[in-house]
Amino acid sequence: MSPPLRDEAPAFVADVMLGRLTRWLRILGFDVLYFHRAPDDFLIYVVLESGRTLITRDRALAQESLLAGRILLIDETHLPHQLRAFMERYPMGGGPRCAECNGLLMEVTRKEVEDLVPLYVYLTSPKFWRCPSCGKVLWEGTHKRNMLKYLGFDPWRGCEGRSE
Question: Which of 9, 50, 55, 10 has its CA nearest to residue 34?
Answer without folding.
Answer: 55
